[in-house]
Structure formats: structure tokens, C-alpha cells
User: Which sequence fits this backbone?
């Protein structure tokens, strides 16, 4: 069995730090501290992989070791397929993951190709090599629950109980994000090892197999107004029904099982993990049928909690769509989290800004955090986040941080990091990137672009333009994906990573990419008619010919 570890220290095995950065981030994606199932190259999100197979992985590593600073490596769904001479301000790697021609863009066709070894599922940051463990999603989840608290509970979640399921790579952020906002959360997962992993990383406080015990602890914490996260082992369909039958009051209901992938991501009711695996192998079609039927029930229970007064929202796993297709006609009665809580931030080009210390030294992140506090002293939400993140988040693999920054802010922070590397205040280059819960790089009608004001939810041009402009601007590795988050047929999205190695070359590229990337968020939302985006474009000088002139 392979055991890939995040590589730390100042000695490099590639011909330059930029290539080394790619290599280290690939290793990091597969570090057992970071990845959910590293032995099968699965990083997170069902079957989101970092490379197509171990042979491809080895070839990628070898190619990166020999890659010149003016060459570009092409990756097709996790397999290295070409190296071309380009130039030293062009990306070192370009990736395309799971992109299918629309008429074939479904799981059935994808699985056929996957079986033949012709494709892999790149999810979002798995196949674009910028996954940083659950911390990456904690910030987005923290923002979501924070905004939900503002809208429904006077700014804090103290005295509320959230019920959710799925404590995997992404979903594992939910318990921490809820307690960071003061609330109580019961997180159900059918796989006990997933809960154990959240307890190890301090994202979840306690674990139990006993529903009554979970409800008793939740009620006590609700009454006391103290935060508490409880990992409950069970199948969500069973636990949710039992909680409804007991009449226990749930204040907030959501879900992050991997419902986007009915074959690999969701365990049907009545099946143990082992039984599910056996059925998946023996009769995949029947498995999918049972999983979908369970999801339909799951959504019906979520709707019932909503009817009983809970705030309900979909957390980007496409479970409403599956239930709807299974005949639950009111499945879309609860909104997606983006239109409900995140869109106003997207209009300002706000979104994930993540950075990783290639040295492996946590002190580098502490120095970067300090710089961020200095640069944005009035951003209270950001300062609170940094305090909480430093206190509560254990690094997984290479030390990393994520914060949400807007148009203008990302370039400011990126250039500051490059200066700190140049001046030796940070000991080795820093990788700067983002995930795909983002303002200007994603077309995903059931998630990031749900219910757009002008009805342009399914327009994929924006995601393509994002990848193209970031390539032109000189990102270090740029990717284009299909099917991340919500599954095949439901999304197109682009990734961006750029390396701050302290050089002037990096400075020019950072300045361009950290402007074009969030700029696309402002442009996309201004074009759709959002006033905030138009205002930001005018005030901050984003040139949009038919809007700002
Ligand atoms: P994951 O595959 O690592 O985890 C899913 C978890 O759900 C697993 O631990 C599994 O045991 C559990 N599960 C499956 N069926 C269950 C059932 N019936 N009852 C209880 N638990 C069950 O996936 P992840 O990375 O945590 O992502 C979860 C979902 O969230 C995916 O659909 C993903 O696409 C979506 N997602 C959302 C966002 C966001 O911003 N909200 C971001 C990324 C991913």
C-alpha cells in the first residue's frame, strides 16, 4: 500500500519552486491526514480523486520533477498527457477533469469511462490539487451559518439545535461551523470512522450510537445556551424519522451526505457499510435505485422538519434534485444555501482565498495571519474568524489558512505574501488558491448559480471564461471541471492556483490573476443585474463595457 506524505522543508526535488509547489500540493492532497481514502487516491467528496490511478500518479510526479520553468504539463482527468514549451509566465500545469459532452454528461456514461480507465472524477479541489482538509470548507460553512444566524436568530446560534447528516471531508466542517456560531448540532453519519476522524481533528465534540442520548445532550446544551457538537452513528433516514416521531424540536435542518453520487456517496436505508459495498459491486443498478428511494424519504423528512418550523436549506449535494426526480414534487420547497445566504458576498467578488505554507512550518501561517489582521483591521468578521481558526483548527498536512476576501482584497493579500517570502519573513514560497464555492468560476444551477436574478443559472460560458482569463493572466495551475459538488450533468467550474515565491515574475502574475479571478465574480453578477455587483464594479474600477462604459 502506498503511503504518500505531505512534503515539508526547504530542499526541493523539482527544477524550481513553482513546479515543486505543484508536486507538494499533489502529495498533500493524498496525505492520510488530509485525504479521506488515500489508498484509492480519493481525496474527498465521494470518489473525488487526485490522479486517475497509481501509474498516472507516478508519471505526474516524474514529469513534474523534470518540468522546466517554461514548460506546461497537461493533465486529462488525472493522467499526464503532454508537455509543451510555453513561457515562464504561463501556467506550469493545465488540467481538465471529467468534462463530458453535454448529451453524454451523466453518471452512467462517466462510470463506463471510469471503468475503462479513461476518466476520473475530479470533484473540485481533489483533481485541482488545492484541497487542504476540512478547514477549507469550514470558512464557507462558518459564513453560511453566520448569515443564517443573522437572518433568523439575531446573529447567534446559541439555544438552537441543527440536525444534519454526512460528516465526510466537507460535511465534517458543519459541527465546527455551528459551534463557532454558538449552536448545538447533531451530525449523523452511517460510517463511524468518519465521526472518529472529526473527533480526532476536534471538529466534533462527542460521539454516540444512542439517539436518545444524543437528544438528551442536545436539549441540555440548548437549554444552557452553550455550543455542542454531537456525532451520531446511524443512517439519516432512520434517525430523522425517529426524531420526527419523538417530536423533538429541530431549529435548523440541512444535509451533506454525498447525495450527488447515488452509487458511491449515499448508503441506502437498512444497509450496513459492508452490505452496501457488496450490493454496489454485485448490482450497481439496484444500488442506485435503493439509494435514490432512501434520498426521497430523507428529503420528505427534511420537508417535515421545515413544516414543523425548522429553517431548512440544501447544502449543495443535489439531494433535492434526486428526490424531485423520484416524485417528491415539493423537494425544492427549501432553498439552496447560495441564494439564501451567500450570493450577496459573491456580488462583491468575495470568496475563498486559501494559502498553504510549502515549508510545512506553522510559523509561516501565523506570520501570514498577522499580516492579514494588519491589512484588514476593520473587517470584524474576518478578525473573529482568524481568532477562531487559530484556536480551533488543527492543520491537516501542510499548514494552511482560508479566509474569504473580495475583489481588491485578494490581490492586496497576495502581493503582501509575496513580499514576505521575498524578505525571508516567511521561510518558503506560499501557494495561493481557492475552492470552487466561488463567485465567478462556477456554473451550477442547483448551487452556486441557483435562482440567478436573470435566469442565467445554466450558462456555462462564465466558468470557461474564468479558466481562460486566469490562464492568460498566468496562474500556476488552472483547471476546468465538470460535475463537482452536485454530480455529473449539473455543474461546470474552474480552479485557480498561483504561487508566491518572492520573485518579480510571481509579483506580476499574482497581480494579474488575483484581479481577474475575483473580477470574474463581480462581472458575472453585474451582468446578471445584481445592484451590489454593479456598484462594486463602478467603485473599484472593473471595466464592463456595457455597464461601466
Ligand atoms: P464524503 O463522501 O467525504 O462524505 C459523505 C458522508 O456521508 C460519508 O461520511 C458517508 O458515510 C455519509 N453518508 C452517506 N450516506 C449516508 C446516510 N444515508 N446516512 C448518514 N450518513 C451517510 O463527502 P463530502 O466531501 O463531505 O461532501 C458531502 C457533500 O457535500 C457532497 O455531495 C459534496 O459534493 C457536497 N459539497 C458541498 C459543499 C458546500 O460548499 N456546501 C462543498 C463541497 C461539497
Assistant:
Amino acid at each position: 500500500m502506498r503511503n504518500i506524505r505531505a512534503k515539508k522543508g526547504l530542499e526541493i526535488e523539482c527544477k524550481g519552486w513553482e513546479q515543486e509547489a505543484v508536486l507538494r500540493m499533489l502529495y498533500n492532497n493524498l496525505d492520510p491526514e488530509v485525504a479521506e481514502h488515500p489508498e484509492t487516491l480519493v481525496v474527498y467528496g465521494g470518489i473525488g480523486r487526485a490522479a486517475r490511478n497509481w501509474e498516472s500518479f507516478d508519471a505526474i510526479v516524474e514529469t513534474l520533477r523534470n518540468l522546466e520553468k517554461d514548460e506546461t504539463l497537461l493533465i486529462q482527468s488525472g493522467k499526464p498527457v503532454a508537455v509543451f514549451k510555453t513561457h515562464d509566465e504561463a501556467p506550469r500545469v493545465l488540467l481538465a477533469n471529467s468534462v463530458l459532452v453535454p448529451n453524454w454528461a451523466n453518471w452512467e456514461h462517466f462510470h463506463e469511462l471510469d471503468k475503462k480507465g479513461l476518466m476520473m472524477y475530479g470533484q473540485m479541489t481533489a483533481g485541482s490539487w488545492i484541497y487542504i482538509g476540512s478547514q477549507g470548507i469550514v470558512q464557507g460553512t462558518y459564513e453560511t451559518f453566520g448569515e443564517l444566524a443573522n437572518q433568523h436568530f439575531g446573529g447567534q446560534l446559541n439555544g438552537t439545535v441543527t440536525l444534519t447528516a454526512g460528516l465526510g471531508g466537507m460535511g465534517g466542517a458543519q459541527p465546527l461551523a455551528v459551534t463557532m456560531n454558538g449552536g448545538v448540532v447533531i451530525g449523523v453519519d452511517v460510517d463511524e470512522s468518519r465521526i472518529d476522524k472529526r473527533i480526532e481533528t476536534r471538529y466534533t465534540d462527542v460521539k454516540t450510537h444512542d439517539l436518545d442520548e444524543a437528544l438528551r445532550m442536545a436539549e441540555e446544551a440548548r437549554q444552557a445556551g452553550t455550543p455542542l457538537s454531537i456525532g451520531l452513528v446511524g443512517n439519516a433516514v432512520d434517525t430523522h424519522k425517529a426524531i420526527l416521531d419523538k417530536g423533538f424540536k429541530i431549529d435548523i435542518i440541512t444535509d451533506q451526505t454525498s447525495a450527488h453520487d447515488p452509487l458511491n456517496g449515499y448508503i441506502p436505508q437498512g444497509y450496513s457499510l459492508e452490505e452496501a459495498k457488496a450490493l454496489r459491486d454485485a448490482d450497481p443498478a439496484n444500488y442506485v435505485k435503493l439509494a435514490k428511494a432512501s434520498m426521497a424519504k430523507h428529503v420528505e423528512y427534511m420537508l417535515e422538519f421545515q413544516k414543523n418550523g425548522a429553517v431548512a436549506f440544501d447544502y449543495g449535494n443535489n439531494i433535492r434534485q434526486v428526490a424531485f426526480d423520484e416524485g417528491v414534487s415539493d423537494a425544492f420547497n427549501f432553498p439552496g444555501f447560495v441564494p439564501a445566504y451567500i450570493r450577496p458576498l459573491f456580488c462583491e467578488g468575495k470568496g475563498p482565498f486559501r494559502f498553504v505554507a510549502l515549508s510545512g512550518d506553522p510559523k509561516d501561517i501565523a506570520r501570514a495571519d498577522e499580516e492579514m489582521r494588519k491589512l484588514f483591521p476593520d473587517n470584524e468578521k474576518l478578525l473573529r474568524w482568524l481568532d477562531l481558526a487559530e484556536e480551533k483548527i488543527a492543520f491537516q498536512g501542510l499548514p494552511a489558512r482560508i479566509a474569504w476576501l473580495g475583489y481588491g482584497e485578494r490581490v492586496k493579500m497576495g502581493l503582501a505574501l509575496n513580499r514576505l517570502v521575498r524578505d525571508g519573513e516567511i521561510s518558503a514560497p506560499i501557494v495561493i488558491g481557492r475552492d470552487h464555492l466561488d463567485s465567478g468560476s462556477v456554473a451550477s444551477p442547483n448551487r452556486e448559480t441557483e435562482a440567478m436574478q436573470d435566469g442565467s443559472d445554466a450558462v456555462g460560458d462564465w466558468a470557461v471564461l474564468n479558466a481562460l482569463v486566469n490562464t492568460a493572466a498566468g496562474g500556476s495551475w488552472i483547471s476546468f471541471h465538470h460535475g463537482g459538488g452536485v454530480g455529473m450533468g449539473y455543474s461546470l467550474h474552474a480552479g485557480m492556483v498561483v504561487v508566491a515565491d518572492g520573485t518579480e515574475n510571481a509579483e506580476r502574475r499574482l497581480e494579474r490573476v488575483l484581479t481577474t479571478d475575483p473580477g470574474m465574480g463581480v462581472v458575472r453578477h453585474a451582468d446578471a443585474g445584481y445592484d451590489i455587483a454593479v456598484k462594486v464594479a463602478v467603485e473599484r474600477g472593473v471595466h464592463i463595457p456595457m455597464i461601466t462604459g
